[in-house]
Design a protein that fits this description.
The protein has no helices and eleven strands. It has 120 residues and is mainly beta. A hairpin with a 6-residue loop joins strand 5 and strand 6. The mean pLDDT is 95.
């Protein structure tokens, strides 16, 4: 069974940090581009970052650029989203997703999501 699982969400204070993880079971995560999406209450889901499968090239939405960093583990089967300088507007349900390429619109596999709440 092919699954993605996110972890690392929780409550953080404004200006704080969290690290989200995205782990795969049933398939090799490093064969896919991995995108991170988030959906805040009442808002559409948005893709905030993506890392390519081979070269590990990353891209970021303007809303998180300079604060969030995407990386892969040495084994390649976990992707990390390091979130620094968190803001209240980062509060959302965060999902990782496997795609063929970062430019691909279609998502092949979704994780179940992990909640991030930024509040004092």
């Amino acid at each position: 069974q092919l699954q993605l699982a996110e972890s690392g969400g929780g409550l953080a204070q404004p200006g704080g940090s969290l690290r989200l993880s995205c782990a795969a079971s049933g398939f090799a995560l490093d064969r896919y581009a991995i995108g991170w999406f988030r959906q805040a209450p009442g808002k559409q889901r948005e893709e905030i970052s993506c890392i390519s499968s081979s070269a590990g090239i990353t891209n970021y939405a303007d809303s998180v650029k300079g604060r969030f960093t995407l990386s892969r583990s040495n084994t390649g089967n976990t992707v990390y989203l390091q979130m620094n300088s968190l803001k209240s507007e980062d509060t959302a349900l965060y999902y990782c997703a496997a795609k063929r390429h970062c430019v691909s619109v279609d998502v092949l596999h979704w994780g179940q999501g992990t909640q991030v709440t930024v509040s004092s």
